[in-house]
Design brief:
The chain contains eleven helices and ten strands. It has 357 residues and is α+β, with helices and mostly antiparallel strands. The protein folds into three domains: 110 residues, Acyl-CoA dehydrogenase/oxidase, N-terminal domain (Butyryl-Coa Dehydrogenase, subunit A, domain 1, Orthogonal Bundle), CATH 1.10.540; 84 residues, Butyryl-CoA Dehydrogenase, subunit A, domain 2; 143 residues, Butyryl-CoA Dehydrogenase, subunit A, domain 3, CATH 1.20.140.10. Helix 7 packs antiparallel against helix 8. The two termini are 32 Å apart.
Length: 357
């Protein structure tokens, strides 16, 4: 486990207390049942902003705390535990893109609003059902962006889009007349929109160089892995608690050695995943090349959450998929996240290419 500073421990503990008391899974049920296209409660996001979470990775000069990606990861991990719906991840990824590639004027214009929670931003890259940055066709001519992005997280409510085009990343105001959104209903009930840009005014992020998109995607993969890791831990804890109280054939399920072995194996995989994610977060905070670390972190998160969510359902039996039990929500959220910013097969191929194969 990574060594945390006193301030990071305090931040993690605050996040744990808040999600436990103010944002349990019952709050997510309320958001789901409301059926709003935004997929989250704006009042809850305002609370997060009030606690400073929306500005964790943003420099102090632009209204943030510059507390680093490890600190953001600690918060996102706790939010994942209770499936708390918010645009914190998408806005932080977009902020990371502006920090990396934006001009001073762009940083001054957008980062303070993201930091105080008044501006919801998101990253729009993929144009098909699978992650493939090499297949981008969206283009800009005369400062106008044309193209369609599929399944954009928080695309229904985002006020600022960081859009990948053939020649770089561009900023697009969500209120532009050339921005058209279509809601996409997914199994996790979150906001996933198809966004069509039809001559929308676009402002290029000019300072990031040729590797800007890759660097932004590294951050997206790592911070998404943090949410997935929180979900994995909670699915494990919930399943273990169930096994300790469920009686079958006159015995508590947790006393069966076969089930003990399965849970021990899952615990080992979870700890390996923790190590990979923390290594990636530390690499980001140290300013190193996080390409390989991001691939390892997201691949581990994909594989471990996939297995844990499946095992959680199986070990609960048929009731695990009923709406009465929370455990089914983790599987439903897991599957879209496994595809976000790269499935395991895509990421393994990327790792090979990074190493010259």
């Amino acid at each position: 486990m990574a060594k945390l500073s006193e301030e990071q421990v305090m931040l993690r503990d605050m996040a744990q207390t808040w999600v436990r008391n103010e944002s349990p899974v019952t709050k997510w049920r309320a958001v789901r049942d409301a059926g709003d296209a935004t997929g989250y409660d704006p009042a809850v996001y305002a609370e997060m902003a009030g606690m400073g979470w929306t500005g964790v990775v943003i420099p102090e000069a632009h209204g943030g705390s510059d507390f680093g990606w490890m600190s953001l990861g600690l918060v996102v991990e706790e939010l994942g535990r209770t499936l708390t719906a918010s645009p914190l991840v998408s806005s932080s990824i977009a902020a990371g893109a502006i920090i990396l590639g934006g001009s001073e004027a762009q940083k001054a214009k957008y980062l303070p609003a993201i930091a105080d929670g008044s501006l919801v931003a998101t990253l729009a890259v993929d144009e098909g059902p699978r992650h493939d940055p090499a297949a981008i066709t969206a283009s800009v001519s005369g400062g106008k962006l044309t193209g369609t992005k599929a399944f954009v997280a928080e695309g229904d409510s985002a006020q600022l889009f960081v859009v990948a085009a053939t020649d770089g990343l561009y900023l697009v105001d969500g209120s532009d007349a050339g921005v058209h959104r279509s809601r996409r209903h997914m199994v996790d009930f979150r906001s996933h929109a198809e966004v069509r840009f039809d001559g929308a005014a676009a402002e290029k992020l000019a300072d990031g160089g040729d590797k800007l998109l890759d660097q932004v995607l590294d951050r997206a993969r790592i911070i998404t892995a943090c949410e997935m890791f929180g979900m994995t831990q909670q699915a494990f804890d919930t399943t273990l608690a169930y096994l300790k109280q469920r009686v079958q054939f006159g015995q508590v399920l947790a006393t069966f050695q076969a089930l003990q072995h399965r849970m021990a194996g899952l615990f080992s995989e979870i700890e390996l995943t923790r190590s990979a994610i923390e290594t990636a977060l530390v690499t980001l905070d140290m300013g190193g090349d996080a390409a390989e670390a991001a691939v390892l972190a997201k691949t581990r998160a994909n594989d471990t959450l996939h297995v844990m969510s499946r095992e959680a359902i199986q070990l609960h039996g048929g009731i695990g998929m009923t709406d009465e039990y929370d455990v089914g929500f983790y599987l439903k959220r897991a599957r879209p996240l496994e595809q976000a910013w790269g499935s395991s097969s895509y990421l393994r191929d990327r790792f090979a290419r990074l190493n010259g194969y």
